[in-house]
Amino acid sequence: MCLKFGFPLLLSTALLVACSSGSYILSTHDGRLIATDTKPSLNRSAGVYLYTDSQGQQQSIPQSQVQEIIKR
Question: Where is the signal peptide (predicted)?
Fold first, then answer.
């Protein structure tokens, strides 16, 4: 009985978590596409977007270089 309901529940939970990940793409004015694992946040005083890249490293990019931020 547990397997009858347990597996579909586990599968649907896994799909929900995978679909709601915080992946974003930063599109730059020079045509680069940068994949991020977190939603980029703007540090207004420094004029840069802060994000975590796909390797888990904290990165920044000047606001003036970012054309668009797209949620995947």
Answer: 1-17
Measured in residues, the chain has a length of 72
Which residue stretches of the chain are H helix? 2-19
Q: Cα–Cα–Cα angle for 29, 66, 25, nearest 5°?
A: 100
**Which tokens is 3 given?**
């397997």
pLDDT tens-digit profile of 48-64? 999 998 889 999 999 99
Which CATH number covers residue 51?
2.30.30.100
Mean pLDDT across 7-11? 52
4/67 Cα distance (integer angstroms) = 49
